[in-house]
């Protein structure tokens, strides 16, 4: 399942490609035909993320405020949660930078982790449907849908196809607000999803300390903190020296505040670069292929931190801790694998 930084990158990609444009919205698969009809022919005003939830605002011509405070603009929000198997794929004409020119389009965001790990882009390699196809008189035309496409967004210069999401629905502004009210603060949002980042930090700390549930399990609860997945959970707890199996109420408030502040930095960097890097420079020694590979969006960048030097404990079970040398531990916690160092996080 993509972590929160991936969904924020997706929102930026969608707004960059389609913001302000009237779109043709369809459901080639047919399962979202009713929802697509509600959005078809409307302008996309905005795209935003809250944790792992994506929201895109659609409105009739003449409406420019996605918040629509007076409720007169009939703004509708597309909500998408990719879940384990959801993915967006993109194609566009040369103005979008498709075809590997380094422009604003990406080819895929999301998709099963067993296939592309945390990597969010794949090369436009000329496979069927990967590249835009010419239309009449050399004009750009979108590729045919590939697979079970739940939703297609088609603009003048680009197309985005959604497959396999856990959730895909159309909401009113009030319904969107109700979804957001159930989510914890998001470290990537400018205000954390609260009145301020300080309020967001306080809400996170208070929520964790109200419960006897382990802090490792709570960090994966989207009602506690939105957007944290298995990698950020393991890495933030290691960097804080906190035992993931410690009950939340027993973790000092100062330690939890430090975890929040660290996640603000780490997750915003992930949203900016497309890669999760949590190791400090002095600890970035490659594993030499001994650990499991987690692909990154920056794998092809010679100046990027190597993926086998990017994490302290995630997928490094059995390997020596980068700090103390003890074997990295793993166990299942609430259906997900947990990774930690029993010495550094005693």
**N- to C-terminal separation?**
29 Å
What is the annotated CATH architecture of the largest domain? Alpha-Beta Barrel
Q: What is the CATH domain class of the largest domain?
A: Alpha Beta
Number of domains: 2
Order of helices and strands: HEHEEEEEHEEEEEHHHHHEE
User: What is the CATH superfamily label of the largest domain?
Assistant: MutM-like, N-terminal
The geometry reads as: globular
The average pLDDT value, as a whole number, equals: 87
Which runs of at least 5 residues are low in confidence (pLDDT < 50)? 99-104, 111-134
Q: SS-based structural class?
A: alpha+beta
Give a quick account of the main beta sheet: strands, pairing sense, barrel closure. Answer: 5 strands, antiparallel
Radius of gyration based on Cα positions: 21 Å
- Order of strands, main sheet, comes to 1-9-10-5-6
The number of helices is 8
Number of strands: 13
Helicity range of the residues? 10-25%
Roughly what fraction of the amino acids lie in strands?
Answer: 15-25%
**CATH T-level fold name of the largest domain:** N-terminal domain of MutM-like DNA repair proteins
Can you offer a commentary on this structure?
By secondary structure, this protein is α+β, with helices and mostly antiparallel strands. The protein has two domains: 176 residues, MutM-like, N-terminal (N-terminal domain of MutM-like DNA repair proteins); 157 residues, Helicase, Ruva Protein, domain 3, CATH 1.10.8. It is built from eight helices and 13 strands. A hairpin with a 5-residue loop joins strand 7 and strand 8. The radius of gyration is 21 Å and the shape is globular. About 9% of the residues have low confidence.
């Amino acid at each position: 399942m993509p972590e929160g930084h991936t969904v924020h990158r997706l929102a930026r990609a969608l707004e960059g490609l389609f913001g302000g444009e009237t779109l043709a919205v369809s459901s080639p698969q047919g399962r979202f035909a009713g929802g697509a009809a509600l959005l078809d022919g409307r302008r996309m005003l905005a795209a935003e993320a809250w944790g792992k939830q994506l929201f895109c605002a659609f409105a009739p011509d003449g409406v420019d405020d996605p918040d629509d405070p007076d409720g007169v603009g009939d703004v509708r929000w597309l909500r998408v949660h990719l879940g384990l198997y959801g993915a967006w794929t993109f194609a566009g004409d040369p103005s979008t930078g498709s075809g590997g020119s380094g422009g604003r389009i990406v080819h895929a965001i999301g998709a099963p982790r067993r296939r592309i790990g945390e990597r969010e882009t794949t090369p436009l390699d000329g496979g069927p449907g990967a590249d835009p196809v010419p239309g009449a008189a050399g004009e750009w035309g979108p590729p045919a849908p590939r697979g079970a496409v739940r939703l297609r967004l088609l603009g003048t210069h680009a197309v985005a196809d959604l497959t396999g999401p856990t959730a895909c629905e159309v909401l009113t502004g009030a319904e969107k607000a109700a979804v957001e009210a159930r989510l914890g603060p998001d470290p990537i949002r400018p205000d954390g999803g609260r009145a301020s980042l300080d309020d967001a930090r306080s809400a996170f700390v208070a929520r964790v300390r109200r419960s006897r549930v382990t802090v490792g399990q709570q960090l994966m609860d989207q009602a506690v903190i939105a957007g944290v997945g298995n990698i950020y959970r393991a890495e933030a707890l290691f960097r804080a020296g906190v035992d993931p199996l410690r009950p939340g109420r027993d973790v000092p408030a100062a330690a939890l505040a430090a975890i929040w502040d660290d996640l603000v930095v780490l997750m915003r960097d992930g949203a900016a670069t497309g890669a999760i890097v949590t190791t400090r420079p002095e600890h970035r020694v490659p594993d030499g292929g001994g650990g499991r590979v987690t692909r990154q969006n920056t794998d092809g960048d010679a100046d990027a931190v190597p993926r086998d030097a990017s994490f302290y404990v995630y997928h490094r079970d059995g390997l020596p801790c980068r700090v103390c040398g003890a074997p990295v531990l793993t166990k299942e916690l609430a259906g997900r694998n947990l990774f930690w160092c029993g010495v550094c996080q005693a």
